[in-house]
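We emphasize that the prediction below concerns an isolated chain of 85 residues; any contacts that depend on oligomerization or on bound cofactors are therefore not represented. The input was used exactly as deposited, without trimming of termini.
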Amino acid sequence: MSTKKPETSGAKVASAASRVMRDPNASAAAKSAAASTLTQVRALNEETRAAAASAAGKVLQDPNSTAREKTAAASALTQVDPKKR
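Result of the prediction step, given as a token string:
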């Protein structure tokens, strides 16, 4: 039996997510992933929901996404409940 390792967003990732949220050119998907990441900065019991995970996946696949957007999206995806993947 494996135990789930608690994950939280680190300071660098939180900073990148914050910048995405303030970027007027960031897509809705990028902002959704960034918001999910910011929710999990200090909350060990928070998980990325399906809609945010889907948005994060779109951000990672979009060649026009910035490095900050992809950082926030990747962080959000690391916090998806493994049972729901």
